[in-house]
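Quick look at the format.
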Amino acid sequence: DSDLSMRTLSTPSPALIFPPNSPGFQNGRGSSTSSSSITGETVAMVHSPPPTRLTHPLIRLASRQEKEQAHVDRLPDHSVLHIFSFLPTNQLCRCARVCRRWYNLAWDPRLWRTIRLTGDTIHVDRALRVLTRRLCQDTPNVCLMLETVVVSGCRRLTDRGLYTIAQCCPELRRLEVSGCYNISNEAVFDVVSLCPNLEHLDVSGCSKVTCISLTREASIKLSPLHGKQISIRYLDMTDCFVLEDEGLHTIAAHCTQLTHLYLRRCVRITDEGLRYLMIYCTSIKELSVSDCRFVSDFGLREIAKLESRLRYLSIAHCGRVTDVGVRYIAKYCGKLRYLNARGCEGITDHGVEYLAKNCTKLKSLDIGKCPLLSDTGLEFLALNCFNLKRLSLKSCESITGQGLQIVAANCFDLQMLNVQDCEVSVDALRFVKRHCKRCIIEHTNPAFF
């Protein structure tokens, strides 16, 4: 019985989550936990729960007085559980060290649907191993309740940590490992192969990740329908610099249910990769290819095949995009709500006119740093896009106060206007403020405040 008690009532130390030099761990004071520092790393420790009885009479007397003064002890279990549900992973581990009652409540499986770890110094591989081991005690080797793992910015995360997640968390639905540049394709393949319910995957900044696919074993087992087995709907591969058209082809063939895809600064992607994407992923609602310098009007012609399903598009700083590409989007994607075309210097008033007349439900438009735009383009926007809430005209040198006044007189719901580095008068800015009372104006005119 005693062995069983020690097995089921052990808790990871908060030192697993906090580095040794963080508040509450300096000089070993402020906490009853122990940790070891080896070359600056935080070492995972496992401790037994707080004792139920204290032998020294003075200590026992003090604990009784404190217990009488602690109003929190009068709360029923369901109230404490509700409070604990708002705490992050590290604080839950701390609460488990307070007393036996808090220990049992802190490790309630309902509180462990999410693990969230952050920091450069934490030994995240070991932390994941210890936490999943503790959560697997009631259901050996399987964490049935864990659905979300967020370890963004934990640069010490390696493939071992992802292997732990893949093997122990079959019900995982959301995984965020942005900025963890040590993980590779193989570990990501294991996660998507062993976690069939995974819907949200963020690998932004993981420079070694070049595609998303099933492992070879999983592909053989699920053949010939393995291409439709990955249920990912949200995929963020921002700053995955090594991603190429062939990798995007693999992603599209395996992740056919994608609705949100972000490829910001994937500088090797071309129009050919977008063609592959449109063949397989016909349900995309949000797409970003900003700073993909090889994407041109031909790529936008492929994107336009999404038609009315497309609601969000970012082509910022795609220097090869002109009015021709914008016309494709405007003609076929009439339900577009958000367009970021900042830095597309080939866009003129003619492109904005076609966009305004066909995408009348636009709510957010960024056409900053487009030097060929003038008040004429703004007039078309004002007379057609009455629902416009956010408009950025930063560094549009041909814009004047007259164009802004036309916009303000027609778009009463405008909430954000960026006219930084634009030659507009104070009177024009005051006119906008008077007609769009909820509008926040970003400007560089020192006379307007």
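Next, a different chain entirely:
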Amino acid sequence: DIYCRCLSRTLCHTATPVTVGFYAPCGHRLESLLAKVTAFMREEMAQREAAELRRGHRKPRSPHGWGLLEALWLLAFYEPVVTEGHLRRKNLEFIFIRFSAWEFAGCDKLWAGLVTTLCHHVRQHFGALPLSVFHVLGSRPRFASGFSQREWILKKGTCLRLWGLLLVLAVGIAILLVALLVPGIKDHHALKVVGSAVASLSGSSLVLGALSILKNFLVSEKKKIERLTNSDRFAGQLGFMSKIREEVEVLVDYLAFMEVFERRRLRVVMEITSLDLCYPEKVAGVFNAMATLLSDANAPFIFLLAVDPSVIVPCLEQTGCMKGLADNGYLYLNRAVTLPFSIPEMGARSRLRSVAAAIQTREDLMYRIIAGNVAKT
């Protein structure tokens, strides 16, 4: 508990993006240890939220319920601004994502499973509609000039284009109605053609925008990446990774937008487990995917790599990624991991607790889940 609480507090203060090597000599302990770290981080998150409210700060918002309408309005017509007051906010929200590498070990591109899992859970957390609107109308937050506390700036260009299209559409419909209904003008076919052309051109622009939002709503980022990985046209080209990078950049910009909207800092905690059960080449692919996701300096990602180094290092040393590193797996692991955190071996008391948990029946384990749910409520 002491080690897990220390790590949870460290992750609340460390800068992102960061890769944490969560090293434990016995792989069977990792699930319970990760559960402890997650629980302590949620506890820290609740304490910070309460402290911000006591200081008199405004209550955070949520993109669900009535907050969804407000989020869509701001996405369409306003540009977020990162102010000095936003940077001083201490309240955090952690989005925990568990990625079991063993579930994707059978596919050719294990690293693609990591990216698709990240995109899927972020989309599921905030909802599909806000992310779809952001793809079409959203903009990345910009930094405030000076110490201004104004967090939203009206997008005048978008508003002018929208009002212009609506005005042209109204004029086209009016001309068409006059040409169809006013006596004496019905025989002027040119007026009908002009009215229908103006109305159709302006209306088509609005329809195309709505169709783009609908397309992003129906086709998620996960499906886009899966199509790219299955396509032979992109598999061997440099443009393939750039497409993946574009999807990740949109996701990072969207998280930055939601930070300003929710009035809190967001951190995506990616817990990677079961990596020591995969083939060596698949292990190296996951490290390459982490490097791709961490390449953006503003990415709010925390990768919690729960592995046993004595198993991972021999896997890395058997792959081609070790060329130029003197075939030293520990050197490669130290370069990939920003913050190594080692859990010591079990003591006698911990072993007794593990044995007691191992001999419990299925009904006992289910009762523990029910009791935990009661404590949460």
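The radius of gyration is 26 Å.

See the schema section for token definitions.
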